[in-house]
């Protein structure tokens, strides 16, 4: 089996009505089509239609899987072209309540949501689907960066009873949430919320053993997602830059890479899926979609999941995507199973996960210096910290890099912009206590991602600029030239 697999998610009516699209998808190298089935209490498509769509895909030699949207989005995140498509759960499903007392639909857990999802999974299995994914509305926060959990009367009573808390504790919790204070009370709330979501997932997984979880961008405990609980299940790493505006910026690309690196701590490469999403469906160019493929290659995410809600992205995209998919698959073969290593450290601590605003310090990833993922604060190398981690981590040292606004004793501050990061880099290259001799880096002060795989004796160089670049990789005294097309990736053997 090929290391890199390509998948696409489609609505059943698209599968049945767009044979030319399916032919293009197959030709490009997609091996599995995921069909949208159950939507938060609704079956918008007849079961017989789901079966027909499944048969059509399989007759073309591709495999199938099913996607459930278990809890509903807080707004329209599906982009249905059909009028009357249900955008929220039925009336007998309760709304979620935020810490501000405002209600929202979707992304909360009350009866009968799980019972209905378990029943739906049984139906989907009877239709012959084996692999299934819950979409990223399987979370207990309306959006990334928001401290979730449902603050309705029912959840309040359950939480206070489970923890022996009082009304005063509840008021304190609301204050801790609103000021993002990382207290033991807030942590108890996160545990309570995570327990709820994990219990729900386990009940659903009992009905469908090959159920995977699509985690949202930087999804973690504050949204009820205790990542370690999903070990062994397929996991989609969270991404966010779904249009040209957000992904077009260098920082958009490094944020995306940052989230994928974080989630890969919790999933094996062959169980990892990307969130290669365009939303609305035509707002991400084919070139940017190709660039997103590099994020998965660098992070050893072996399954690319193309998504765009219920409306497929433009057919012409596949002409540009097909050769890029083949190239990334070849690159992936050479780095698969190897971890990026380097002196710059990617770190996402518990304060970020419990109370942070999901704004990572990520731009260091584009400084042409190799990096590695760490689950602790290091003394060697340089660890880049979010504001929440800077504020709450107890053991900072002078190799911790923070944004100036978050400065704290014991750390170094560097603005998260490329000029300042390259100036900082100048203090490290060729210096006795700087970047170790023999560590590869890109000579030019041009934004580019250099991922170093010592086990494979090579680097991947991802050009994050919209124009081609002639770059130089330095290793000790050697200088290795590499030309990289706009947004493309090249492998450099060392
Ligand atoms: Zn509730």
List keywords for this structure.
494 residues; alpha/beta; TIM Barrel; 2 domains; nine-stranded parallel sheet; five-stranded parallel sheet; 22 strands; 19% strand; binds zinc ion
User: Sheet bearing the most strands, described?
Assistant: 9 strands, parallel
CATH topology-level fold name of the largest domain? TIM Barrel
Secondary-structure class: alpha/beta
Radius of gyration from the alpha-carbon trace, in angstroms:
23 Å
Beta-strand proportion: 15-25%
Bound molecules: zinc ion
Number of helical segments with 4 or more residues: 14
CATH architecture level-2 label of the largest domain: Alpha-Beta Barrel
Count of all domains: 2
State the fourth-level CATH superfamily of the largest domain. Glycosidases
Structure in words:
The protein is of the alpha/beta class and 494 residues long. It folds into two domains: 5-335, TIM Barrel (Alpha-Beta Barrel), CATH 3.20.20; 344-493, no CATH class. The protein has 14 helices and 22 strands. Strands 9-8-7-6-3-2-1-11-10 form a nine-stranded parallel beta sheet. Strands 13-12-14-15-16 form a five-stranded parallel beta sheet. Helix 9 (250-264) runs parallel beside helix 10 (286-299). The chain is globular and about 65 Å long. The two termini are 28 Å apart. Zinc ion (ZN) binds at residues 97, 108, 110, 150, 152, 154-155.
């Amino acid at each position: 089996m090929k290391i890199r697999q390509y998948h696409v998610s489609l609505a059943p009516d698209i599968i049945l009505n767009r044979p030319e699209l399916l032919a293009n998808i197959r030709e490009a190298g997609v091996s599995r089509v995921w069909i949208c089935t159950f939507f938060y209490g609704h079956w918008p498509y007849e079961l017989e239609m789901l079966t027909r769509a499944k048969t059509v895909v399989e007759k073309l030699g591709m495999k199938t899987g099913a996607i459930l949207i278990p809890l509903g989005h807080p707004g329209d995140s599906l982009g249905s072209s059909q009028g009357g498509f249900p955008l929220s759960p039925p009336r007998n499903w309760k709304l979620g309540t935020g810490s501000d007392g405002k209600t929202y639909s979707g992304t909360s857990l009350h009866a009968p949501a799980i019972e209905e999802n378990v029943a739906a999974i049984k139906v989907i299995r009877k239709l012959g689907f084996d692999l299934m994914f819950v979409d990223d509305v399987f979370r207990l926060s309306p959006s990334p960066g928001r401290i979730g959990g449902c603050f309705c009367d029912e959840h309040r009573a359950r939480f206070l009873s489970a923890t022996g808390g009082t009304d005063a504790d509840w008021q304190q919790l609301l204050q801790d949430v609103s000021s993002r204070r990382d207290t033991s009370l807030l942590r108890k709330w996160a545990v309570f919320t995570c327990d709820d979501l994990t219990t729900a997932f386990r009940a659903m997984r009992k009905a469908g053993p090959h159920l995977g979880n699509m985690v949202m961008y930087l999804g973690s405990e504050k949204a009820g997602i205790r990542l370690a609980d999903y070990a062994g299940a397929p996991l989609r790493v969270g991404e966010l830059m779904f249009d040209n505006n957000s992904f077009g910026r260098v920082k958009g690309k490094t944020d995306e890479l940052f989230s994928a690196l974080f989630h890969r701590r919790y999933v094996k490469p062959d169980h990892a899926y990307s969130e290669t999403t365009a939303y609305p469906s035509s707002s991400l160019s084919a070139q940017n979609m190709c660039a997103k493929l590099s994020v998965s290659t660098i992070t050893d995410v072996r399954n690319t999941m193309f998504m765009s809600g219920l409306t497929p992205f433009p057919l012409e995209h596949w002409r540009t995507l097909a050769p890029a998919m083949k190239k990334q698959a070849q690159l992936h073969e050479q780095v698969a199973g190897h971890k990026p290593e380097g002196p710059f450290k990617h770190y996402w601590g518990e304060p970020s996960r419990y109370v942070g605003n999901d704004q990572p310090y990520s731009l260091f990833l584009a400084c042409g210096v190799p990096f590695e993922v760490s689950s602790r604060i290091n003394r060697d190398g340089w660890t880049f910290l979010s504001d929440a981690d800077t504020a709450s981590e107890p053991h900072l040292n002078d190799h911790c890099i923070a944004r100036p606004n978050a400065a704290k004793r014991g750390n170094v501050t560097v603005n998260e912009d490329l000029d300042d990061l390259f100036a900082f880099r100048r203090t490290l290259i060729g210096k006795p206590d700087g970047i170790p001799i023999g560590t590869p880096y890109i000579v030019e002060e041009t934004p580019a991602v250099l991922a170093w795989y010592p086990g494979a004796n090579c680097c991947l160089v991802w050009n994050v600029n919209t124009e081609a670049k002639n770059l130089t990789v330095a290793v000790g005294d050697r200088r290795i030239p590499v030309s990289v097309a706009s947004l493309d990736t090249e492998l450099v053997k060392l």
